[in-house]
Each structure stands twice: as structure tokens, then as C-alpha cells.
Known about the structure:
Layout: H1 5-21, E1 25-29, E2 37-40, E3 47-49, E4 60-64, E5 74-77, E6 81-84, H2 90-99, H3 117-132, E7 138-148, H4 155-165, E8 170-176, E9 180-186, E10 189-194, E11 197-208, H5 221-240, E12 247-256, E13 259-269, H6 277-284, E14 292-293, H7 295-305, E15 316-320, E16 326-330, E17 334-337, E18 341-350, H8 356-374
Antiparallel strand pairs: 1-2, 1-8, 2-6, 3-5, 4-5, 4-15, 7-14, 7-18, 8-9, 9-17, 10-11, 10-16, 11-13, 12-13, 15-16, 17-18
Helix pairs in contact: 1-2, 1-4, 3-8
Amino acid sequence: MSFNKKLYHSLTHLQTICLKQSIPFVSYRLALQSEITTMVQYQSLPEKLDTLQNLNEKVGFIVAPFMESGNHSTYLLKPDNSFVSDNIDEEFIEMLKLNSTFSKEKPSETGIATTTFQDFIGQVKDAVEAMENHQFHKVVLSKIRVSALDDDFLASDFFLKLCDRYPHAMVYLIQLPGVGCWVGATPEPLLVIEDECVKTVSLAGTQIATGADVDSYGWSRKEIEEQGIVTNFVEQTLRSLDIKNYDKIGPTNYQAANLIHLKTAFEFPQADLKDCLGDFLKALHPTPSVGGLPKAEAREFILANEKHDRSYYTGFLGPVNINRNSYIFVNLRCLQLFDKQFALYSGAGITASSIAENEWEETDNKMMTMMNVMKS
């Protein structure tokens, strides 16, 4: 994917002004598409959603954390202006320069520290022991790497590089009060509504792509077991919402960036969802691919053992009810930007057959999605 000079100039100009002026905005590019959509909300603050009820009536871009708390809420950016690709009005950008009244406060970097090898290995071993004692079936453990930003780093350039490098991902750059600034290239749709059809997936199992045919990769017992846990959860969720008329495709091998995963896809008519978009999201999130199963027990283990705050990593985000379509993705392969540092997140699904050192390597491999572009 290549970008013309007009798009590069206009888009980066708009993003840079929004970042400097702390104006709420998002730029995103959906998988296998060339258009970049940028939404800007400059006349008011994004809406804080205390509930996902009535989400069918909302229009905008939703951002939700891994877990609701006093520090992290769900927000809906309701754009005052939207631009597609290079259709960006320079007069609008000049107006933003003169009229922004948003707070310049940014999330603090204090207290954010890189996860050590010893801590992560210990957490995995504790999780395996808990599963052997039948406390839960699966848990996803994450780690964080904090690094200094290069002096010449530009978020707008990084966003375009991600678009170019990862055409199969949903790529985004977002800044909201209370959320901060995040950029990512996520391969995992939580829920897609398109052309009167609803789609969701179970995605689990990870290995490095070697250039071989995608269908030629084999899987270990642990990876097949992990994928089965997520798939069963999705099926049970569909049935609990009385959605029975669905197609199930897979599991099949699926390539996302430099990684190969196992994927099972589910599709059903939008009419079967009725007016329950919010209920469906609430029932799905967090899926076992980012939290664990059972949900409550896995969440308690994560909160008790992970030393960092996931914040909006493994939450979900995406455009809602734009031209009657919604594209909501799990927030994976992402990093959080601060003034002089960035925090990079990744995670791995732990089952009773997990080997701790292998899980550390898997999380390193997932981090390379972002680091390969950061170093380019």
C-alpha cells in the first residue's frame, strides 16, 4: 500500500495538530482496504458510556478498556467532522489551531515498568499450578515493555508505516481524554456487522511465519486445546443470546503480520442480533483469547498476579453504526504513547500444558509486530 504526497501531507498535518492541541480524534484503516478515515471531535468531549445498552442508537468510534474501573471507562467519540483518505480540508486544520480549548494533560508515565523475565515465568508457573488444581481452564497473561521514543519519532509516520506493513490488520491512531494516545495494528475482530451479516471469530495459537504456505503449519496439543476453549466460549455465547442460525467455518490457519494463528469464524444474519449489539459485546468481552475461562476466576488471577495495568490493551475499539456497519476489534498488537516513552503490550494464552519459557518467547514474537516497524 502506498500513499500519495497529498494524503501524507494533509493527514499528518491534521493528526499532528490534534496531538499537539489534545483534540480527541481517531484515524483508522480497516483490513484489506485503502481508505483511511479520520474522525475529529472538537466541539465537545467524547461521551462516557456507563452502559453498553442502547449501543444500536449510537454512532461514532467506541473505545473500551480490558476492565471497567475508576481509572478506565468506555468512551464514544462522536465526530464533528470526518474525512476519508485525502479529502481533508486545510481550512478546517487552521481553524483547529486557533480554537482548541482542550486540556493538555496527558497520562503519566510514572509507575509503568517493563515486565521482568522472572516475574512472567513465575506467573505462568503459578497459573499452570492453579489449573492443575482446577481453579480455571485457561488464563491469558500479558507483559509490558517500556522504551524511550526516538527524538525524531512521529506518531503520524508510524501510523502510515503500519498501514503499509500490515494490510490484513485494522490499523488505528487514537487520542482521547481519559484514554491517552494509542496506536496499533490488530488482527482480531470482536464483532463485525457488514451487509446485514454479523461476524465474529475465535483466534488462538501462535507461531512465527516462515514464508511457507499458510495451510502447511501444524499445531501442538496445547495450541489446539487453547483454540478449542475460545471456540466453545463463542458458541455458548451465541446460544445464550438465542442466536442459533449461525455458520461456523474452521478452524483454519490464518496469517496476521509475522504470525500464524488458528481461526474459527462465525457468521449469522444481522436480524438475529435484534437490538442487542451492546448485550452481545458485553457477553463476548473479554473473550478467553484475552482473559480466560471461566471469566471471573481468570480475571481475578490476572488482577492478583500481573504487576502492570492493562488499561486499554485487550479492550476493544472501532467504528460503530457508520453507514449501518460496525467494525469492532480487540485491542491487540498495540502500544501506548507518552511524551518521551512508549509502552508496548503483548500476551499469551496459558493452559495446563503451557511451558513458561515458550510463552515468554511467544509474547516476544507478538511484540515484533510493532517493534519491526518502530525500528524501520
